[in-house]
């Protein structure tokens, strides 16, 4: 099939690779230098109408939308209006991610377990509320923040500072919720709105520094699979995934695409930290290399409302992702740093997340720059291979966590 991938980060590079290895003709916009090695990169305006026209002009069989901003802009709606199958939720359904206040209210309406929370539309009321709360306090910007609009405040002062930052923007809302304890895990469901298949569980590492310290980022590394007992997976299906899809359909917002459930495995059972409306980044870089079956066929079937979950198959292996981020990330990442990649290595892929070519040379162009993914028979082997490759990359000043996998007792892997 002829498929158009929309996006230009590490997630989209992983999607491109998953499509290409099954022999499909892959196009991508806006793409990046790594993607250009496996797909034809197209230049286009990035608004919904222009992207739908591009898909029509290129006579593609399917569009797969990567980033959340494109979903919120209505790219799936625009493609559907032209009769082009598109994998992803509609603009209205993507509100499940794009508006955390609405998403929390949706969970309350449908009895989906999550942290106790309140939503505020002004600074004064939110400040008064946090002064009565014990720490830690979770403060979330209700809008789309690319996975970074969350503060786990260890003090009242930190919570108040986060609220001042949120309400510096006009029309902002803040969600203030209880801090949950337990292991955090990501479950992705490929769905046609009714039927769904779960990916292996994965675990991201959100903060910039080792030991889960420092500011929140979009994600600094992933292990997959994260060990979740079958009995807990059954609860996740019964109490979270199924009622979410049924609730969206009941509210006239059928959800097709990837339902990302960020969960906390609390002592009281799994609870939702957040929903996203697309593949996670960097979770996609960990999960998709383990997909044995054909992503393009699954995406087309989901878009057409005919997904057969039994056809979705994953290899019984493990994967690990190590992110190389620019110096200064997540606040002010330094750009245009020269990068030199080592030769390819079997079982290891370097996905480009924030790169560009300058005079034919590879340089950094974003915060998270490279996602080094390794697959192996065990998580420990995958981590060793990923760190070995990461240490061979010449990227002056790069930030890299050395403790990916530490929460399940995997020994830190160092290659200095």
TrEMBL record:
Superkingdom in the source lineage:
Bacteria
Known catalytic reactions: 5-phospho-beta-D-ribosylamine + glycine + ATP = N(1)-(5-phospho-beta-D-ribosyl)glycinamide + ADP + phosphate + H(+)
Q: Which major enzyme category is it? A: ligase
Name the pathway.
Answer: Purine metabolism; IMP biosynthesis via de novo pathway; N(1)-(5-phospho-D-ribosyl)glycinamide from 5-phospho-alpha-D-ribose 1-diphosphate: step 2/2
Q: Does the keyword ATP-binding apply?
A: yes
In Pfam terms, one family for this protein is GARS_A
Residue stretches making up the ATP-grasp domain: 104-304
| Cofactor(s) needed by this chain | Mn(2+); Mg(2+)
Keywords of the record, alphabetical order, are:
ATP-binding, Ligase, Nucleotide-binding, Purine biosynthesis
User: Per its record, what are the GO molecular function terms?
Assistant: ligase activity
Might you give the EC number(s) for this enzyme?
6.3.4.13
Protein family (similarity comment): Belongs to the GARS family.
Q: Which HAMAP family match?
A: GARS (MF_00138)
Q: What is this protein called?
A: Phosphoribosylamine--glycine ligase
Source lineage:
Bacteria, Thermotogati, Deinococcota, Deinococci, Deinococcales
């Amino acid at each position: 099939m002829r498929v158009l991938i929309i996006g230009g980060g590490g997630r989209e590079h992983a999607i491109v690779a998953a499509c290409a290895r099954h022999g499909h003709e892959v196009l991508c916009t806006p793409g990046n230098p790594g993607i250009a090695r496996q797909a034809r990169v197209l230049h286009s305006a990035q608004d919904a109408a222009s992207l739908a026209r591009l898909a029509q002009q290129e006579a593609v069989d399917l569009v797969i939308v990567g980033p959340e901003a494109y979903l919120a802009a209505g790219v799936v709606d625009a493609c559907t209006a032209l009769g082009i199958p598109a994998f992803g939720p509609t603009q209205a359904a993507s509100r499940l991610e794009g508006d955390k206040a609405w998403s929390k209210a949706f969970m309350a309406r449908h009895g989906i377990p999550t942290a106790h929370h309140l939503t505020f539309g002004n600074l004064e009321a939110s400040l008064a509320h946090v002064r009565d709360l014990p720490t830690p306090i979770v403060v979330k910007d209700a809008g789309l923040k690319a996975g970074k609009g969350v503060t786990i405040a260890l003090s009242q002062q930190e919570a108040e500072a986060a609220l001042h930052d949120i309400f510096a923007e006009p029309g902002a809302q803040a969600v203030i919720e209880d801090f949950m304890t337990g292991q955090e895990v990501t479950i992705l469901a490929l769905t046609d709105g009714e039927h769904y298949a779960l990916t292996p569980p994965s675990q991201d590492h959100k903060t910039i520094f080792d030991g889960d310290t420092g500011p929140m980022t979009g994600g600094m590394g992933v292990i997959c699979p994260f060990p979740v007992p079958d009995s807990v997976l059954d609860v996740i299906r019964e109490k979270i995934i199924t009622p979410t899809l049924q609730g969206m359909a009941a509210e006239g917002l059928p959800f097709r695409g990837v339902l990302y459930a960020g969960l906390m495995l609390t002592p009281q059972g799994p609870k939702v930290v957040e929903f996203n409306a697309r593949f996670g980044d960097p979770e996609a870089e960990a999960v998709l290399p383990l997909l044995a079956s054909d992503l393009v066929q699954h995406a087309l079937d989901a878009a057409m409302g005919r997904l057969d979950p039994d056809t979705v198959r994953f290899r019984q292996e493990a994967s690990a992702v190590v992110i190389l981020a620019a110096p200064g990330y997540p606040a002010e990442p330094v750009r245009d740093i020269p990068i030199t990649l080592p030769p390819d290595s079997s079982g290891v892929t370097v996905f480009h997340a924030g790169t560009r070519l300058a005079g034919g040379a590879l340089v950094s162009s974003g915060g998270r720059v490279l996602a080094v993914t390794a697959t192996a028979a065990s998580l420990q082997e995958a981590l060793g291979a990923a760190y070995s490759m990461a240490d061979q990359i010449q990227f002056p000043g790069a930030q890299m966590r050395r403790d990916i996998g530490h929460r399940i007792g995997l020994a830190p892997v160092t290659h200095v």
